[in-house]
Structures are given as structure tokens and as C-alpha cells.
Amino acid sequence: MPVFSAAELIAVGSELLGHTRLDTNSLYITRRLLEVGITVRMKTVVGDSAGDVATALAAALSRVDLVLMTGGLGPTDDDVTREAVSRLLARPLREDAAVLERIKGRFVARGVEMPWINRRQAMVPEGAEVLLNPRGTAPGLWIQSGEKTVVLLPGPPPELQPMVDAIVRDRLAALASGLRYVTRVIRIAGRTESHVEVAALPLYQRWRAERRPIDVTILASPGTIDLHLTVQAGHASEGDANLASAVADLRQTFADDLYTDVGASMEEVVGSLLAERRFTIAAAESCTGGLLTSRLTDVPGSSAYVDRSAIVYSNESKVEWLGVGSDLLGTHGAVSEPVAEAMAAGVRTRANTTIGVGITGIAGPTGGTPDKPVGLVVIGVAAPWGTSVRTRRFSGTREQVKWHASSAALDDVRRALLGRAD
Amino acid sequence: MPVFSAAELIAVGSELLGHTRLDTNSLYITRRLLEVGITVRMKTVVGDSAGDVATALAAALSRVDLVLMTGGLGPTDDDVTREAVSRLLARPLREDAAVLERIKGRFVARGVEMPWINRRQAMVPEGAEVLLNPRGTAPGLWIQSGEKTVVLLPGPPPELQPMVDAIVRDRLAALASGLRYVTRVIRIAGRTESHVEVAALPLYQRWRAERRPIDVTILASPGTIDLHLTVQAGHASEGDANLASAVADLRQTFADDLYTDVGASMEEVVGSLLAERRFTIAAAESCTGGLLTSRLTDVPGSSAYVDRSAIVYSNESKVEWLGVGSDLLGTHGAVSEPVAEAMAAGVRTRANTTIGVGITGIAGPTGGTPDKPVGLVVIGVAAPWGTSVRTRRFSGTREQVKWHASSAALDDVRRALLGRAD
Asked: Averaged over B118-136, what is the pLDDT?
């Protein structure tokens, strides 16, 4: 009996090589495999060519003992997976009477005769085990070839997913190494990827030297740096304990820049801080155009702390809806620290909330000047204990500047709330 | 000079082998390659292992003359693409002074010193051409090795995309086979995928029988059905002519449900309709929490028609900021047609715009009742020629309901504007 610790995935289908569709099945399969301690080493997408399917499978089998292939099991000429695998593994195809009966039965149940082309789906490589497909005509196939195992699964996700569940539960769980992977996602704001990497490097080295080494993947997304910590463990609680000490190390290194150790979003973190303190928040959004409040209200239960916000694009709206002084706008311009502060204070008063946020900036792509270039964003936060304001410069497209600005505003609110329980 | 008709794509990054992220870059690259007649033969995803990167590249080069690799060009230890490619192609890495200066300059512009690890990003394989990365520190690399070409590109999509554009325009267009694929994206609102499919089926059959058959891919996204029409042509104008007649067929079939034949977003279409008419718009957003106005302001130049909007979550805010009658709220509840109409009319008056939109609904996951279930959304549109209101029921998560509601509101505005030039 082989023991699997790594697998490869091959998705078959020319439509997956176009510019519109991705092989999303691999995410589902990977998640289920990781639960029983099997990692994915490589993923390949090949078109409807028997030669390419065989080449990809041969390459995968040279690296790992378990290959899961999806797609290309349909009834039409361009479904080549069965033929390619049968040839590569020298397992001639034979028509399987029981499979044929099941396929015919599915058509009968719908009151139609089986089209002759579906007969192809009853062809089974010699020595293969048939895997039941409760939701479609194409059965799966489990082929053992020495130490190697090749599993063929249909491509449509509704057919594939219950079959993956069954394989993991009934076969792979017993054949896996017994170890599983436990993951925690830590997120850091206000630092670049390089800065996080440099600061965390000594920790990585220590973690790698542990009995159960902790593996770290660093991922930069706009406005946040994610660290994915993964450890192998005999059971979940052992993994949790190992990761807890790594998280403590990171907390010490990154202090308030670390905003979650359970993969929460910035808006969830800010929402929890507000809800715990029974605070409310309102925003005066210029360049973000409502994105900040939309993100705040993505969190279920956010109506506990979001009452209202004002989107104030024009100067007039800042004056009329927030009471920002025309003199301030005239003297400093709309994108300035005094105006951001006045917006924050104005919306806080008019919405009668604990916290007020003012965001003003130049999202671009036009409207910049040498003094106030595209990407310049000023964020003010007004609270009962005082007002803060900060100017930043972001790069990227209009949508990216909006996203960065809303993330920075959330982070400014988060930092203003930390340690303020009143 | 090689002539390319097929390419392979290799995405490097262990995070792409987990259960959370897909290699979406390949869709963008494929689309641009198809425009110059280059098809993708296989796609591979490998982890941060120099051995696996080299294996995948060697295999790809055995099949095609052009390989584009994305990711693994960062400054950290687990960024192995440069090293793996340099070893496989026997092109030793040398530090490039000009690249190093550019990287340092990027940090200086942000007022910070370059972390020492970023020095790695200035390492260039012997004989490689450096591809400028206007949005990040990692330059791209173009490596010619006999008849084979290997292109290394950074993984973050905002950095990658302009670099792909430049490569296709400046290099690949000249090296491609001459036949190109011309694509047009048609978008339809207010119909399900099955309805679109059934209505378009007779057209598909006619198009497939043409001398240059038109290939159609149908893609359902939340709130919109996309039809991608693709045709092969000797030059762009020939393809354009073929597609124009197909687009005319679709216009006849789908009438006003077809909202773009050039792949524009709904917010761009609505923005153009507003700008052409010199109209302005304001929204009163309850369950969408600012998402509608944020989408409207994603469009460059939207300040021509967006002046301000109100996010009014609570009943009090609807009364105080929009003048919605407390009696209306008491009698009908916040999620009702009279309230949506009053919100639309109220924000139109208070923002002094041509169009006012009111959105009220139950985004969930809690807050639903048997009478007013989660996903119920009411949208009112107030215009000089009158007010319309419509109730819909969406399914999905909180974020999905918000998205559907904002898309429906944009579509309601679009339909209200069609044929109204005054």
C-alpha cells in the first residue's frame, strides 16, 4: 500500500487554456487533500490532445505517486483523457457492462434514449476501479499501477465535488501519512513586504529548526501583508499549540502593525473594536466615493456601529453637508490636512457618532498637480479624545488608489481605537 | 527571428498550490497573446522550488518556443525563478547597476532606504534584456536562447499587466504568425444564462457555418451575462467586420438588455449616458452601504456627474438626511417601495441632481422575516420625468446581495436614461 504525502493535479480541457476560464476544481481538491496531509506539488492544465495529456501525466508520475486528473471524460470526440491514460499505462479499454447499464438508466430516468456517443463513457481501462458519479454519466476511475495511483474525475464541479469527498473519506484518508496541515493567517498593516521579511527572518530560521518546522509563505496584497504559517501535526490541537507560540513571536516583533492572527479582514477587526467599545462611526468620503463605508458594511452586524456616512465629492457638498468652511477650502484646497480634519469633525457632529473619518485625495488618473500629485490622500480621524490627520501618497490605478485609501483609513481608525476603551 | 504560434505559461509560487489562490494572471496573458494569434498550449503552476521551476521550464521548452513565467521575482529567499532559469539556461546572474539604481530610486521616492534583500532583484542573467516594471521593484527579463524565448514577469497583477501590454505591442506582435484572434465582449443584464443561451443558439449555428467561424463563450458573472465572440482574421479590420455583423444579430435579439458590445462595465455605460446628457446623479444607499456610489466613482471623470451621495443605514438617518417621512417608515417599514421612492426623491432634492437613486434592502445574513426575507431589495429611481420603483429578491452572501443590488440599481438607472436626452 502506498502512503501519499504529495500529489499532482492535471486539468484537461482546451476551454481552460483560453482567456476566460480557470481550473477552479483544483482549489476544492487541494483543500480536501490538505485535510488528510497531502500537499500539491504541481498543477498542470492541458488541452484536448491525447499526446499532451499523456506527456503531462508521465511527467507528474515521475515526481509523485498520486495524480488526480479532472475533465476530458465526456462522450465527445474531444474527450481524450480515458484513451490517453489507458495508452500511457498500457491498460487497454474495455466496455464495462455495469457502467453502461447505469448510463443508460440515467437517460431512461429522464425519458430519453441514450445517444450512441455516450457508450464511450462505459469504456474502462483494464484493472481500473470504477468510482460512482451520483450526479452525471461519466464515472470516475481509480487506477493503481505499481506504486503509482492515477485518479480520473469528471470536470463539472457539481459532479466532481461529491466524488472528491468520497475518495478522500474512503480511500485517501487511510493511505495518507496520518499527519495533517494546520494553517494560521497573520496580517500586518503599515509595512512593506520587504520590511516584514527582514523583520521576520530571524523567526523563520528559528521555526525551521523546530522538530515540526513551521513553514511560512508571505503574500503581499494591496494594503496588507499576509503571513501563512503552516505546520504538520498528528492532530489539530498539536498544530494549534505549535502555531500559537509562533504567533506570540510575531506579536512581539510587529506589535500594533499585526492586526489579526486568525485571517480576519481589516474591516472585521475594526468592526470588532468598535462593537466591543459600543462606539459608532461615520465617514465623510471624497476620493474613496463610498468604498470605506461599503467595506465597513460588508461585515455582518455592522449596523451596530454604522449609522450613516456622507459621500462628498464636490467642494459645495463638503460645505453644505459637513460644514467645512469655504475659507479652509479656499486657502488649503480640498486635498489638505485642515480639510480632512474638518470633514472628520463635521461628519462626526452631524451623524452624532463616536468616531468621524474624513478622506480626501486625488484618485486620478487626472487632476494631479506638481504640488498635489495623483495618489495623494489625506485621512483625518476625529474621536472624543482628539483628532489625528495623516497624508500619504499611493501609486496605481484609480481603483487601486481608492482601495489603498480605504485600507489606510481603516488602519488609522484601528490604531486610534487600540487602547481606548472609553 | 522565431515566429511564435504557441506559448506555454508557468506560474511560480507556493501560494498558488494552496486551496485559496488561483493563477489569474494566465487569463490576462492569454487574452493578449490571442490578440496577436498566439495560443497557449499548456499552463503549469509550480511552487517556490528551484528544482521544480527548472523541470517545468525544461518540459515547456521541449514543446514550444515561447515560455512566459510569472512570479518568484521578489526579494525574498523563496523567490527562486531568476536562479532556476539562470541555471537551466546556463546564463550566470550578474548584478545590473542600472536596475539597482532604479530599485533604490523607488525606495528613495517613498522616503525610505532600500532593504538589503532587494539587491537580489537587480540580478540579471547574462545576455538577458531588462523589461521595465513601471509599478514595482522587480524588473521583467527577456531571455533569448537559440530558437527559444523565455520571458520572466512579476506576479502582482498591477505590475504584470502593463508589462504584458508592452511586450505584446513592442515584441510579440512582430514575432507572431500574422493570423490573429479578434474578440468582442457583449454584456447582457436582466436575463439568466440559460435564457441567453436559448435565445442565442440559432445565431451560434449560423456563425459556426461562416467561412471564418465565430466562436462564442458564454460566461455568467453576478448581475451580468458575458458573450465572448472570437474570430480568426488576417488583420484586425477583417475580424472587426465579421464581428460587427454578429453584434448586430445580438442587438436585435437582446434589445435593451444588451448594455455593451465593447466589454464596458455597467458603471462606465451609465457614466457615459449621464455625461452625454450633462445629467448628475446622487444615491441614497442603505443596504449597499456606499457600494453603488463607489462603483460609479471607479470611472475616471465621474466627478462630472457624481457630486455627493448619502449612506443612510438607520431609520433616523433616512429621516434626518433625506426627509423620508417617519410615518412612511412606520407604516411600510424601511424596506418598502414607498420608502425607496422617498429616498430617491429626497436625495435628488437635497443633492440637487438630475437623477436620484434610493436603495433599501436586507443584505443578511440575519434581519430577514417571512414577509421580508434576506436578499429582498427595493430600488427607486427619481428623474425629472417621474419616479420608478422595483422590488427584487437576490440570493447569496451579504457581499453578493450588496453587489447584485448595486448592479440592479445601475441597470435601473441605465434603462431610465435610455431614450431620455433631456
From this structure: 94
Nearest alpha-carbon partner for A329 in A312, A352, A311, A349: A312
| Three-state secondary structure call for residue A110 | coil
In this structure, CATH architecture of domain B6-175: 3-Layer(aba) Sandwich (3.40)
Query: What is the pLDDT at residue B3?
Result: 73
Of the pLDDT bands very low, low, confident and very high (cuts 50, 70, 90), residue A182 is confident
B119 in contact with A, Cβ within 8 Å: no
B290 residue type, one letter: G
Distance from CA of B40 to the nearest CA of A (A): 6
Q: What is B26-69 written as a DSSP string?
A: HHHHHHHHHHTTPEEEEEEEE-S-HHHHHHHHHHHHHH-SEEEE
Alpha helices in A43-153 (DSSP H): 50-63, 81-88, 97-109
Sign of CA dihedral B398, A161, A19, B56: positive
In this structure, what DSSP letter does residue B169 have?
I
Residue B244 burial (CB count, 10 A): 11
What's the pLDDT tens digit per position in A142-163? Answer: 999 999 999 999 998 889 999 9
Asked if B133 has any chain A CB less than 8 Å from its own CB, the reply is no
Q: What is the pLDDT of residue A421?
A: 62
pLDDT in tens, B339-395: 999 999 999 999 999 999 999 999 999 989 999 999 999 999 999 999 999 999 998
- Any idea which fold B180-260 has? Alpha-Beta Plaits (3.30.70)
Average confidence score pLDDT of chain A: 92
- What pLDDT is attached to residue A2? 62
Are the C-beta atoms of A290 and B308 separated by less than 8 Å? no
Q: Do A309 and B296 touch (CB under 8 A)?
A: no
- Residues A197-201 have a mean pLDDT of 90
Q: Which residues of B touch A198 (CB under 8 A)?
A: 115-117
Q: Which residues on B lie below 8 Å from A393 (Cβ)?
A: 110
Per-residue pLDDT band at A129 (split at 50, 70, 90): very high
Q: What is the domain partition of chain A in residue ranges?
A: 6-175, 180-260, 266-417
Around Cβ A373, how many Cβ atoms within 10 Å?
13
User: How many C-beta neighbours within 10 Å does residue A195 have?
Assistant: 17
CATH homologous superfamily of B266-417:
CinA-like (3.90.950.20)
Q: Count the helices and strands in chain A (H runs, E runs).
A: 14, 17
Return residues 178-237 of B near A (CB < 8 Å).
183, 217, 219, 228
Residue B347: half-sphere exposure toward Cβ, Cα within 13 Å: 34
Residue B38 Cα, gap to closest chain A Cα (Å)? 11
On whether any CB of chain B is under 8 Å from the CB of A78, the answer is: no
A44/B214: higher pLDDT:
A44
Give the C-alpha separation, B105 to B375, whole Å: 50
The length of chain B in residues reads 422
Q: CA A263, A266, A269: angle at the middle one, nearest 5?
A: 80
Tell me the C-alpha distance between B267 and B223, whole Å. Answer: 12
pTM of the model: 0.81
- What local confidence, expressed as pLDDT, does residue A339 receive? 98
- Contact (CB<8Å) B308/A306: no
Question: Is this complex scored with an ipTM above 0.90?
Answer: no
